[in-house]
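Exercise 7b. Backbone tokens:
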């Protein structure tokens, strides 16, 4: 079990029969896009054991790449759910003031409870929109909103940096493209990642920019999902913006897993010029050994010829 699963198991009770039903209800809600919150404590517990490990791991991945070196003292977590993004941020930052915005009061109360239990030095504010924060976060929340421009404006006007995370599906990526264009063209935002450019997205209509993390499954996770494997892959898409310009030294980013063959590697890279290239790198290339160790999502430092 991870830390939050252990807490839920010990403090909120555990009934595998009830949680199986709640897990099925949640999965049905995701599939049919009819989920509007958590109807009871059991659904929150089911989420902690089935979805939290993946969304938490995604947040950790993005914080480690884009945020951990920044000065973050205050966070506006819009649509915070049970506080997944804030819990991930608390692993890197201490003494944070969190502003939690969430229409589901039960989920929001649990978010505050979880954060204060594991990170008691943090300050929790609920349902307050601050004048200014260092970081705004939409973690699996903006894509669910029909009124996304208003919510985006509310958060962007108050923050220096903005992280938006969504599931790695074609539909969510299309929504992110609209958000990307809106912030770049209408709000003069600077795009930090995943793109190293601010040109129009070069991906073809049937392709989409997404990445993946490998998430271990607990025994309880496998039971609730009727799963056999001890891990799952979580696909995600994201955007990270800043109000301060940042120069990118990288040549590009890998937007697919490298295909390694006997004497060469095939790569798919989105470059800082806003182009998709698919070079074949042979063993004689000076960067071959380094590129052979690269993984999907890595930045590529040197221009490839």
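Sequence design result:
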């Amino acid at each position: 079990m991870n830390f939050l699963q252990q807490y839920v198991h010990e403090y909120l009770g555990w009934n595998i029969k009830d949680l199986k039903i709640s897990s099925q209800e949640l999965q049905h809600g995701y599939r049919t896009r009819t989920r509007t919150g958590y109807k009871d404590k059991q659904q929150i517990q089911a989420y902690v054991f089935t979805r939290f490990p993946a969304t938490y791991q995604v947040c950790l991945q993005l914080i480690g790449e884009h945020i951990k070196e920044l000065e973050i003292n205050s966070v506006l977590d819009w649509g915070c759910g049970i506080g997944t993004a804030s819990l991930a941020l608390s692993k890197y930052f201490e003494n944070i003031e969190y502003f939690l915005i969430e229409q589901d009061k039960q989920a929001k109360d649990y978010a505050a409870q979880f954060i204060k239990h594991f990170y008691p030095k943090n300050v929790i504010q609920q349902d307050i929109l601050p004048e200014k924060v260092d970081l705004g976060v939409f973690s699996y929340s903006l894509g669910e909103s029909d009124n996304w421009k208003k919510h985006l404006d509310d958060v962007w006007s108050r923050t220096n940096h903005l992280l938006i995370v969504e599931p790695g599906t074609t539909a969510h990526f299309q929504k992110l493209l609209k958000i990307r264009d809106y912030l770049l063209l209408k709000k003069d935002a600077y795009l930090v990642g995943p793109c190293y450019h601010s040109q129009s997205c070069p991906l073809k209509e049937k392709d989409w920019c997404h990445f993946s993390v490998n998430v271990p499954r607990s025994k309880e996770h496998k039971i609730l999902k009727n799963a056999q494997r001890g891990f799952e892959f979580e696909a995600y898409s994201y955007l990270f913006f800043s109000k301060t310009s940042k120069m990118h030294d990288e040549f590009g980013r890998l937007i697919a897993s490298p295909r390694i063959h006997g004497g060469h590697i095939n790569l798919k890279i989105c470059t800082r010029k806003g182009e998709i290239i698919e070079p074949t790198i042979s063993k004689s290339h000076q960067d071959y050994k380094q590129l052979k160790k690269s993984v999907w999502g890595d930045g590529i430092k040197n221009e490839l010829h």
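Instructor comment: The domain at 3-242 is CATH 3.40.50.150 (Rossmann fold). The mean pLDDT is 92.
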